[in-house]
């Protein structure tokens, strides 16, 4: 009992130090950003990865390709590159048929799709080569 007495005194002192005034919490009915959100343009999420495949190319190098959903492009990672190269369909040219090839900003070209057993890949500084899954 004598051991518990100091703990009781400490607990009582801690409770006595609490503020006994009532606390009022008020809720707002209106959203302060409602107007800004109503005017904002709709957000489009980036495409999800539909499939990932690793290909062995004619020069015996490996290439990993992440195919994006809805044919919106692909991410190509050649060999042990630190970052993938983003590829997308080129802008249509009036009077010419639409290209099914995917093109990157650095000149990388990819012909084929996720369902094909092989693709043709052209990397900067290298010629076009066939790559098989």
Question: What is the gist of this entry?
Answer:
This protein is of the alpha+beta class and 133 residues long. It is 14% helix and 31% strand. An 8-stranded antiparallel barrel has the order 1-2-3-4-5-6-7-8.
Descriptive overview:
The chain is an alpha+beta fold. Helices cover 14% and strands 31% of the residues. It contains two helices and eight strands. The longest helix is centred in the N-terminal third of the chain and has 13 residues, at 4-16. The termini are far apart. The model has no long low-confidence stretch (mean pLDDT 84).
Write the layout of secondary structure elements.
Elements: H1 4-16, H2 34-39, E1 49-57, E2 62-68, E3 74-78, E4 85-88, E5 102-104, E6 109-111, E7 118-122, E8 128-132
Antiparallel strand pairs: 1-2, 1-8, 2-3, 3-4, 4-5, 5-6, 6-7, 7-8
Feature tags:
133 residues; alpha+beta; 8-stranded antiparallel barrel; 2 helices; 14% helix
Alpha-carbon distance between the two ends: 78 Å
Supply the number of helical segments: 2
Order of helices and strands: HHEEEEEEEE
| Assembly state of the chains shown | single chain
SSE class = alpha+beta
How helix-rich are the residues, as a percent range? 10-25%
Biggest sheet character:
8 strands, antiparallel, barrel
Give the strand order, joined by hyphens, for the main sheet.
1-2-3-4-5-6-7-8
Can you count the beta strands? 8
Which percent range describes the beta-strand content? 25-35%
Overall residue-averaged pLDDT value? 84
Rg for CA atoms: 31 Å
């Amino acid at each position: 009992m004598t051991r518990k007495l100091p703990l009781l005194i400490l607990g009582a002192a801690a409770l006595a130090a609490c503020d006994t005034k009532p606390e009022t919490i008020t809720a707002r009915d209106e959203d302060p950003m409602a107007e800004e959100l109503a005017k904002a343009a709709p957000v489009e999420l980036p495409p999800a990865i539909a499939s990932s495949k690793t290909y062995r190319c004619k020069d015996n190098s490996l290439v990993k390709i992440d195919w994006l959903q809805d044919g919106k492009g692909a991410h190509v990672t050649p060999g042990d590159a630190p970052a993938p190269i983003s590829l997308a369909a080129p802008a249509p040219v009036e009077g010419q048929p639409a290209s099914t090839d995917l093109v990157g900003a650095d000149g990388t070209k990819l012909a084929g799709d996720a369902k094909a057993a092989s693709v043709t890949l052209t990397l900067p500084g290298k010629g076009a080569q066939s790559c098989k899954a």
